Amino acid sequence: MTQPLARATLAPGLEISRVVTGLWQMADQERDGRAIDLDALADVLVDYAQSGFDSFDMADHYGSAELVAGRAAARLVDKGLRAPAILTKWVPESGPMTPEIVRGGVQHALDRLGLECLDLLQFHWWDYKHPGYLDAMAELMRLREEGLIKHLGVTNFDTAHLRVLVKNGIEIATNQVCFSLLDRRAAGGMTDFCLEHGIQLLAFGTLGGGFLSERWLVNEPPAAADDWSKMKYRRYIDAAGGWGVFQGLLRTLAKVAERRGASIANVATRWVLEQPAVAAVIVGARLGERDHRANNRRLFSFRLDADDIAEISQVLAALTPIEGDCGDEYRKPPFLTASGDLSHHLENLVPAYPAVPIGSRPARRRVDTGSASEAACGYSRAVRAGDRILVSGTTATHGAGEVVCPGDVEGQTTHILDKIEAAISALGGSIDDVIRTRIYMKDASRWQEAANAHGRVFRDVLPANTLIEIKDLVGDYEVEIEAEAVIST
Known about the structure:
There is one protein chain. By secondary structure, the protein is an alpha/beta fold. The chain folds into two domains: about 5-345, NADP-dependent oxidoreductase domain (TIM Barrel), CATH 3.20.20; about 355-485, CATH 3.30.1330.40. Helices cover about 35% and strands about 20% of the residues. It has helices spanning about 25-30, 40-50, 65-80, 100-115, 130-145, 160-165, 190-195, 230-240, 245-260, 265-275, 295, 305-315, 345, 370-375, 410-425, 445-460, and strands at about 5-10, 15, 20, 55, 85-90, 120-125, 150-155, 175-180, 200-205, 280-285, 355-360, 360-365, 380-385, 390-395, 395-400, 400-405, 435-440, 465-470, 480-485. The strands form four sheets. An eight-stranded parallel β-barrel has the order 3-4-5-6-7-8-9-10, surrounded by four helices. A seven-stranded mixed β-sheet has the order 11-12-13-14-19-17-18, with helices on one face. Helix 2 (about 40-50) crosses helix 3. The protein starts with 6 loop residues before the first strand and ends with a strand. The mean pLDDT is about 95.
């Protein structure tokens, strides 16, 4: 008897298979100008949907993935069958996010898919120093109300900035993040936050680009990777301790798999599926080349018991934890991506705030963030004189006067520190150059919430710091921070 696929409800009216078919490798299949047959691959997706694998994940930059998925969806509807669940992503460059730009991104996806409404639009943002993501998400909420989008998700957001969105009133259904036995960052604070706020995780990388399988249960590492997925996840193996430690993990998974009548891939994926905030795993497919549906279906024929979990946990203790939070691999070294280095991309992103000379003192430069108080009171957000950068007391203000994360100390602190980093960066410095911060709080008893955000940013920088309670901060703010940096030469 064919094992049925388990289902999950991501949000009201959006049900998906707990194994989502990921189409990111379509970009790799089209690499170097290689042509693919869109109609033939659409027929493959139709077959996937008819066999129960009816949920597809894609993005605007996954080659022709949206075109193929749109054709498959139309064919299924023409046959009188249920339309597949379409989970797509919009990945704009960092910069100002006007209503026209946001609408254009959504309409581009709708046109490529041939749809009138997107089931789930997942938003990615490269650079938190640029606050345009707040404008983009607010506009996406408006487009959802207009009926162009059913539900909103994000992809590769860390816990701190997922918090900023949620505490700023953005309704998020999902966060798509890397989550596997090799990369367990999502199992900590991210899971706690998602469970508290009703957000579900969509986990990719669960098979480590195919490395978590019997094929790689060997004594010697493989030759150079032959596709982007292998290039990317070989970096994860190295970061987790190297090939020898990885072999120990595979041997343990093989023992558990033998007891369960399953494969190593099944056990590795089942472990992720049983994590409390995970709604589904995204398993990449090279359509027309490889087909792992039969093996993936076996995922739902067993569960891991306490002995299995204990045995896996013991071998996991030998692995080096991947540092940081979800999505850090796209924003800071070490870049655990296919290319292995995104610094060139990040260096070319649009700065959040321009630096300009100060009047008759061209050697001094200043930065404004556009808040009404800067112009009204005659001061700069930050000033550079020589190798010193002084940042004024900064609140969680966006645009001309919007208060970000009303009432939430940690969210406000995160947004403030992003603004401070953006101002320092615009003046030629970095967050590593900060030597002092001062935190002013309306209620000092909530110091731990501010400390959580401050610690994430300055854990390795370790500037001098002072915290002062001010009962009546100007405006509806919980916290205000100023900073000083000295640029190293």
